[in-house]
């Protein structure tokens, strides 16, 4: 496995930071758009897609601002973070994603995030 490449994406979301945070930080919220089902026990979250499971640890969270997860299988310190940014002047809310992928998989990973966030916008009625 080679060195993973860090990438960042930003999406404008029509939502309050408080509501958006619920969809980023709770198993029920994440189940609505990120995975088919999500369970948590303390800091450990289990994401389920099409019958396969991935465990992640909640590394950090700040209410209404961001969550950072690390996949249990990740041995290179990589994480994914979902951060809520509010423009001070326009009050526009953006979702800022930070993630890592193999160099040749970055475009695919970005597309996957775009699709996921598109689902999130539909759930929020922001599409």
TrEMBL record:
UniProt xrefs under InterPro entries: START-like_dom_sf, START_2
START-like domain mapped to chain residues: 1-125
Name used for this protein in its record: START-like domain-containing protein
Originating organism: Robiginitalea marina
Biological classification of the source: Bacteria, Pseudomonadati, Bacteroidota, Flavobacteriia, Flavobacteriales
């Amino acid at each position: 496995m080679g060195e993973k490449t860090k990438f960042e994406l930003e999406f404008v979301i029509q939502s309050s930071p408080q509501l958006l945070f619920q969809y980023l930080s709770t198993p029920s919220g994440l189940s609505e758009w990120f995975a088919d089902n999500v369970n948590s026990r303390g800091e450990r979250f289990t994401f389920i897609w099409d019958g396969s499971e991935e465990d992640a640890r909640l590394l950090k969270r700040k209410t209404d601002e961001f969550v950072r997860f690390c996949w249990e299988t990740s041995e290179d310190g990589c994480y994914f973070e979902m951060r809520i940014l509010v423009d001070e002047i326009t009050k526009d809310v953006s979702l800022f994603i930070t993630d890592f992928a193999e160099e040749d998989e970055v475009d695919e990973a970005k597309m996957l995030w775009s699709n996921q966030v598109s689902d999130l916008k539909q759930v929020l009625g922001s599409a």
